[in-house]
Amino acid sequence: MKRIAILISAIAVMSCCLLSCNTRSEKSPESTGEKSGADLPWYQTTYRWAQTNFTEDDPVKADLEFWRQQWRRTKIQGVIVNAGGIVAYYPSELDLQYRAKHLGEQDFFKRVNDMAHEEGIVVVARMDINRATKEFYETHPDWFCRRKNGDPIMSNDRYFSCINSDYYKVFIPQVLEEIIERYHPVGFTDNSWKGLERNTICYCDNCKAKFKAERGMELPEAVSWDDPVYREWVRWGYECRLANWDLFNEVTKKAGGEDCMWFGMVHADPASGSFADLKGILSRSKMIFCDHQGREGAGFEQNSVNGTLLRLASDEQVLAPESMANYVRGGRTFRLGSNPKEETRLWMISGIAGGISPWFHHIGGSQNDSRQFETPVPIFQWHADNEQYLYNRTDLANVGIVWSQPNADFYGRNEVREKVSLPWKGFCQALSRARIPFLPINAQDIGKYASRINTLILPDVAVMSDSEIDAVCDFVSKGGNIILTGNTATLDGDGQPSGNDKLWQLLGLSRTGERKGAFGSTSSSWEVSAAHNYFRLPKDRHEILTGFENTDMLPFGGGLQVVNSTGNLKPAFSYIPPFPIYPPEFSWIREEEPNTYPLFAGTLSGGGRAVYFAGDIDRCYGRALLPDHGKLLSNAVRWASNGTLPLSVEGPGHIDCKVYRQDNRLIVHLTNLTGTNRIGYVDELIPVGPYTVTLDAQGINPGSAFMTVQNTKAPVSIRDGKLTISIDKITDFEMLVIE
User: DSSP letters of 19-37?
Assistant: First the structure.
């Protein structure tokens, strides 16, 4: 009977895959730009995803027929279903695997799995493997994390499992094999696979022995970035997690076939503090499951950045589904409450523009707050109708912004938000508001993408390897434009002074080591004036100061590196040090420093333009979003780019832009983020317009542009190799297809 059940399940899986492939092959590859062939693996053809993260009472409460209809309405192709690990939703033969409280004798995973197969939907089994019950701990105490004093590490009456123990090396592989043998999912994913975060050291015997054997050291005494042993432990921790990633994939492929893969979920922000080597993971992933469910102190444009960042660090055509929460997130989380639909829609829309595959996410199978279930429907239906334009395309942005996880770790350390996140987000948000498309590029990939970019931005990327510095210098020497800020290219992989000043010499700049102004977060009290400093603008002004004709000074509020220039980079304005804020009678300029410069700009011998921000304007803008700072950043990029930007959008409001080429068509995403940079939740969309879109024709001579949201054509004019398209209004978004 068991063999017959397995055979029936295998036939169901094969039928699912054939139905799914047949459905996707209805469109002609020649007309859609899609890869041809109905035999492509599931991870190259599954574009829309669903997840109801089932709770322990769902085996007796969930209305599965409701979810069947929801899958149909949203036209999903893949579903993520709770299987095992922290909670098993099937009758496991592994006695220590905790079963859902209300599972009883039923096989809930099988019920959902079978229903998905009936609908022609592929199933990925969801795991959560980072903790277990007291019974499990008492049976295998050596498999669990320990504090320095030997106590087990716990949370909410569960015991944290150690990534270096047989819990990961033996037990979890057994769980994976059992699920594959019974249900044949196409793959697995896990959002808690990393174990403890790096701010907690596990002192179990497994970690002690492994660290000693592989590094020749005792475990670090405490979490301290000043301790070289701790820094080595961090690097070692990344390696241990990648080893588990590879182990799990060996297990699933052996048991389920070459295309049955295990994927740990990742967070798209390299400065999030997640204990996972993001670049290492992306380099080995044939699909990227991203657990970045909503805004976290940034604008919606962050999700467009997420999609591009993840794909470029892997393979530009890789599929990257992202969990998009329909429940309330933010200062307070309500797992069963409905997020405002506009908030969730804009997050989805922004992600899709950046190449994210949508994946709606709900908690619990019951319908206590049914408002949330309507939110994804129109977006998913639009996505299905326009799927042919959303994949197998090339991003035409030619401005690159560099990110680096070692920089976040070993430069950011305990101040990662101030040192790394704010400069990065400052530039990203400034360019989004200026409607300048860009590519987020990992520092290791500068050479890989150098031929596609004209302007490279390094926002305080202090930690850089010699090879990464060489790649930047090669780019600049060949005429590439560069913008850098702060301490870029001054520290080695340990966060210590590198002594490699090759880039600085190429730019003709020398650091004095002196700093002025206010670094880090400062008090908002009017009695504290450390950050009450300014810029003095000269009479003869650089193009970067365009738009500031009616003022002789600009607010600053940050700190600067004192730098000398002996080359072609010249200062653009000078510095006014802090003076009192309060009482107002005392708020007058005491002194100025005409020989201290926050910004240098010029044209290099290789023909490229260069800008160095000695003042941390990128950090200031990331913190406060003062429009003057954003304009300085975007002006610097426009000047450095020297007329090479591929897209121009004229009109009111905040429109985030992406532009792609796909065969003989151009695709432009325009996302309306007007009024969304407020604190709280977006619950109203503000229609704006009209707009004039101008872009390089790229050799295409179209008769019209199709507006996929308004479902109508827009006239196109062409002149001097430029296409111009007029749009009367955008409510939430528009996607133009020009061919």
Answer: HHHHHHTTS-HHHH-PPP-
Q: Which is nearest to 482 in space by CA: 451, 463, 507?
A: 507
**CB crowding 272-309: b at 16 or more within 10 Å, else e:** bebbbbbbbbbeebbbbbbbbbbbeebbbbbbbbbbbb
Token readout for 26 is 């209805």
Q: What are phi and psi of 31, to 5 degrees?
A: -90, -20
The phi, psi pair for 101, rounded to 5°, reads: -55, -35
User: 3-state DSSP call for residue 655?
Assistant: strand
Q: What sign does the dihedral 493-497-502-508 (CA atoms) show?
A: positive
Question: Residue 236, class by beta-carbon neighbours within 10 Å (0-12 exposed, 13-18 middle, 19+ buried)?
Answer: middle
Spatial CA neighbour of 669 closest among 712, 707, 713, 726: 707
Residue 640: closest CA among 600, 689, 685? 600
* Bridge partners for 712 per DSSP: 707
Region 272-300 average pLDDT:
88
- What pLDDT score was predicted for residue 31? 37
Task: State percent of the chain over pLDDT 70.
Answer: 95
Centroid of chain to Cα 492: 25
Distances (CA, A) of 567 to 78, 570, 601, 604: 57, 8, 10, 8
Q: Is 735 left (phi over 0), alpha (psi -120 to 50) or beta?
A: beta
Of 133-137, 456-460, 532-536, 717-721, least confident by mean pLDDT is 717-721
Enter the DSSP assignment of 237: H
| Nearest alpha-carbon partner for 620 in 553, 541, 522 | 522
For residue 174, pLDDT over 50 is answered with: yes
Distance CA 32, CA 259 (A): 25
Domains along the chain with CATH numbers: 399-641 (3.40.50.880), 647-738 (2.60.40.1180)
Grouping H, G, I as helix, E, B as strand and the rest as coil, residue 11 is helix
* CA–CA separation, 471 and 26 (whole Å): 44
Distance separating alpha carbons of residues 272 and 525, to the nearest angstrom:
29
Where are the alpha helices (H) located in 478-520, listed in sequence order? Answer: 502-507
CA distance 719 to 350: 31
Radius of gyration of the chain (CA): 27
Please answer whether residues 489 and 504 qualify as being in contact, where contact means their C-beta atoms are separated by less than 8 angstroms: yes
Q: What is the pTM of this model?
A: 0.93
CB 602 within 8 A of CB 609: yes
Helix (H) or strand (E) holding 429: helix 422-433
The answer for residues whose C-beta is within 8 angstroms of residue 165's C-beta and 6 or more apart is 142, 143, 144, 204, 206
Query: Tokens 């090669």, residue?
Result: 474
pLDDT one-digit tens code per residue, 66-114: 999 999 999 999 999 999 999 999 999 999 999 999 999 999 999 999 9
524: Cβ–Cβ under 8 A, 6 or more apart, which residues? Answer: none
Q: What number is the average pLDDT over the span 375-391?
A: 97
Nearest to residue 297, comparing CAs of 165, 479, 426? Answer: 426
